[in-house]
Amino acid sequence: MGEEGASGSEHHRLLSEMRAQNLDMIRFASYRTACKLRFVQKKANLHQVDIWNVIEAFRENGLNTLEPQMEVNVSRLETLISSLYHNLNKRLPPAQQVHAESSSGLLLNWLLSAYSAENTGKIRVFSIKVALATMCAGKLMDKLRYIFSQISDGNGQLVIWRFEDYLREVLALPAAVFESPSFHYSSDLSAKIFVGSQKVTVNDFMDTMMSDPGPACLVWLPLLHRLAGVESVVHPITCDACHRENFSGFRYRCQKCHNFQMCQDCFWRGRIFGSHTNEHEVKEYTSYKSPSKQIGHTLRKSFRCVPEKGRPNIPRFPEEPEKTLNLSHIVPPSPLPSHNGFPESSFMSTQFDVGSMDSRSTTRSPGKYSSSLDSSRYDDEHRLIARYAARLAAEARTVPRHSSRSSMHIPDLGGRAPSEGSLSLDSSRVQRELIAQLEAKNKEIVREIKRLKIQQDLENAALGSEGSSADNPALMSELRALRQRKDELEGHLSSLQDSRRQLMVQLEGLMKLLKNHQASPRSTPNSSPRSTKSPPLTGSLPGTLTSCASSRSAPPTPGSQQLLLGSATELSLGSDMRATFGNSTNALRSSASLTRADRSLRNDLLVAADSVTNAMSTLVRELNSGTVEVFL
């Protein structure tokens, strides 16, 4: 009850909004009907769904396999309509997507009110196809072609009773917008449109339905498409009736009043101004041309001696549907009195119309459809395939028997076709060649597999040897011992470096005392220029530099790089100290007042610096040798 109330409220809301547009004030029934249907089309967002999208939705939801007279329930119709809008949202950008639930609910309720008058909750398949194909967007020519595919037979000719059914369904749309008094169905409509019992092809149908004027009961149909095409056309003039500027839609010009032009709203509702009346003849325009262009067009027409022939706007289509491909020459003849294994009756009954735009069979009449026909067809196909396979096996067995006969084959047969035995021999030869090629490829593949297997085994063996060496406990224990020795040497080196830092501090203090002693005034009077050179006290320096160079030749470890850098810096500092002490020695020698105690102190300092440098060089060399052993 709640769903029925909601559906009824949506339908009433749609009708109330349509009444608010004041469309009933339009004087002409065809324009009034077209405007109302256009309003419903835009409210349901069907103006964004093309005819080809509708046909694709029919195929996705299986309506092309159902018979036109079959009825479907509301749930299946709702699924079809929802798929239309969901596929539409996939094609639209996010900012322009429609509300699928509200649009599908509105369209569903409107279709049920139009085609399910008895509230049975069911609707015919043909009613759905006609309604959606008419109300969707697209070219009128494409819609009429689809309609003709639904109401024609296998020979591409119109079936009159199906055309009458189409008129009944399509005229239910004006009745749904309360225009049934103007456009209603009667039993003699088809006879008025197609007079006599002549054969109507697709071209005849298109010429009649798209002529101007067309059938009186369907005059609103082309007008609906014209109305959709002129909604975006803007006329840069002023309406002489309502004085509105830059109006859109149709433009009407009076043929009696000078330069009197009106918008579509004023003309449809009969508004007049000045000397113009509604009895005057007017001309309808769907576009605007400036006066200069109109004068040029008139001059070009006047200069032509022979008027142009009207170009046919409707293309020509094949009057007969495309025939199915005849494959009877491929299948061997069957001994049964049938066509390719099928009985003649079943074969003729399975012919279908390939011109039908939703691949629906149109040769069968309503009330004669059954699933047993399809099952019997599939059984006949299986029997035909089995018989064909047995015949091929029999021909393969008879190849040796005909081999001698094939060796005596004469090329010129006098224009006759080759015998069945020669054909079987040729097919057997081709089969043998194909088998030989496949066997050669198989052998090549087997050889490649063996080669890859051997290569994989070698790689696995190499990986296994590396893993075994990595798992050797003796090597691991030796490696651990070397690492422990390295850690001990690094600890010893750090302790020696601490002691060296302390010695360097003491040496710097002593050097300051020595410099202060040299700069004291007591030593200046006693200085003498006749001083002899002191013995070379830097004899250990070359050895120290050599040891430093040898230690740098070994690859240092990451942990000992900073130590080597520190040792090199300190060696340079020791050299600077030694040079300072040498200079001070020359100064002391030139001083006559230098005491023996000062000489002994200087010698002791130089000896201590050399011993520290030698100890550091030895320790660095030992550490580098141990590091190299660890890496080896």
**Classification by helices and strands:** mainly alpha
Give the number of DSSP strands.
7
Quaternary structure annotation: single chain
User: Please, how many helices?
Assistant: 22
Mean pLDDT: 74
The largest β sheet comes out as: 3 strands, antiparallel
Amount of beta strand:
under 5%
Going across the biggest sheet, name each strand in turn.
6-5-7
Low-confidence parts lasting 5 or more residues at pLDDT below 50? Answer: 330-356, 359-375, 400-420, 522-573, 590-594, 628-632
**Would you list the SSEs in sequence order as H and E?**
HHHEHHEHHHHHHHEEEEHEHHHHHHHHH
Radius of gyration: 54 Å
Outline: elongated
Helix content: 55-70%
Distance between the termini: 91 Å
Main location: cytoplasm
Domain ZZ-type: 234-290
Biased composition (Polar residues): 346-365, 541-562
Biased composition (Low complexity): 520-536
